[in-house]
Amino acid sequence: MNQRTDAPPAGPEPVDNLERPDRPDRPDDPRHPGTPAAPDRLRSQLLDTTGPLLLAPDAVLLPEGPADGYGVVVDGGVFRAVGPLAELRRTHPGLAPVRLAGHLLMPGFVDAHHHLTQSFGSALAFGEPSEIFRRVWVPLENALDEESAYVAAKLAALEALRGGFTTVADAGTRAPVDVDVIASAARDAGLRCVLGLVCNDAPAEDPARTSAAPVAEATPGGSTVAERAEKHLARYAGDPLVHPSLAISIPEAATERTLRHTARLAAEAGAVVQIHVNEHLAGVERSLVRHGLRPLEHLHRIGALGPQLLAAHATLLTPRELTLLADTGTAVSYNPVASAWKGNAVAPAVALAERGIRFGLGTDGTRGDGFRLADAAEFAQRLAYGLATGDSSCGAGWTWLEQATRGGADALGLGARTGTIAAGRAADFLLVDTETPELALSWDLPWELVRRGNRDQISAVFVGGRLRLWQGAPVGWDGRALVRRAGELARTVRERAEVRRAHPTSTTARARALTAPGRSAER
């Protein structure tokens, strides 16, 4: 990163340096005076939330690009000021800058599509054909109890934080527990969460069904889906980390009445409705048989499209459906790793960007790694669309970084709260070590973050102005103990879940391949 050459004015000197034991300070640089401090000392200072902090990294990643010599003032969980360090030192003379040598301060990643309670079975989806939710996720989540649902969600939250995510959108759990269990797990981990409440009210999902059956108006507890949705939106209305959302598994899982009603409720509350839309060919064909329309077209006909809808996946889009998305302001979660691992197609994200369609990037619970997600987003577009058209840029790097942060926040209805380093926004950010072999020789930092960034370069993760992760470990709670407990519970849950896999494990597949007729055992 190119650094400014103007020295900051006199004032309190930087009191700390974010230094690793093997990285000496740069005392000959007049722009960054100060002496190195032990990592523990800096950690303690960053943990201090009793007053404002003036952070002085090498650069701050703004929407227009990296700004060398910038700093931020964090106070009360938000960015109070963002600008050139010299200016911040003049306007905040009582604050001693916390020097973050060799680091970039950037927005935290936003995961626009996740299933937090599916963490116990991530590898069960490997090698499986599409629509695995019927064979894997429904039985697995139904086997969770309160403790296992909490631990599964907190395990996913820990993985997300380690991967640089400061916000995730949970698309609703099928676990037979109060969704507050999931909210508590995210909150306890220190992760911002858009928490979906499943509002399915059509008969049990049946892929062979070709006509609508009677509506299931009430839940087992006696309250209607509409009442539960209203209570959920009110329950978390003032929560600093948990933001309520409504969710419907797929359009065919809810009646037209509920699809319309949830859209209206969410729009009035400033929330989103999360629905898996046009993800798999089988689902598109069922909709055509039942309604004569594709799923997205069906949602448009009944009035469910709009800025409040977050359409997950949307991999199978016609030109007309792209127009519907653009005209209605509907948002999309582009989930490239999910497409590669278990999908039928790759969403046309470059076309979404060109048409001005709102979208973010989602993991779908595949792996919680923000840098690898951004890389996969660009890589999938290049393979699926760029190679055939000679488009060697496919978003020019910055597109994927922006959609993984600011674009994702906007898609979740949180654009005014997070996703950007700007005054008034929540202080959800990462400190990324740029003095690594992958990033030290920097010529185009946004591209380099997309293609060469790794989660092991993330020194710290802040959510709501608080240090939540330090050098890969959670702050204030025992991550290793959680992982151990997750291992114990996952075995029990897997044993009682009626999971049906179409493919064997990799070791079994290897054994079968080596003993197949006509194949030599010697390699």
TrEMBL record:
Renumbered residue ranges of the record's region Disordered: 1-43, 499-523
Limits of the Amidohydrolase-related domain: 105-467
GO molecular function: hydrolase activity, acting on carbon-nitrogen (but not peptide) bonds; metal ion binding
Pfam families: Amidohydro_1 (PF01979), HUTI_composite_bact (PF22039)
Domain Aminodeoxyfutalosine deaminase/Imidazolonepropionase-like composite, first and last residues per copy: 71-94
Bias (Basic and acidic residues) ranges: 17-32
Listed SUPFAM superfamilies: Composite domain of metallo-dependent hydrolases, Metallo-dependent hydrolases
Low complexity bias locations: 505-516
Keywords associated with the record: Hydrolase, Metal-binding, Zinc
Top-level taxonomic group: Bacteria
Protein name per UniProt: Cytosine/adenosine deaminase
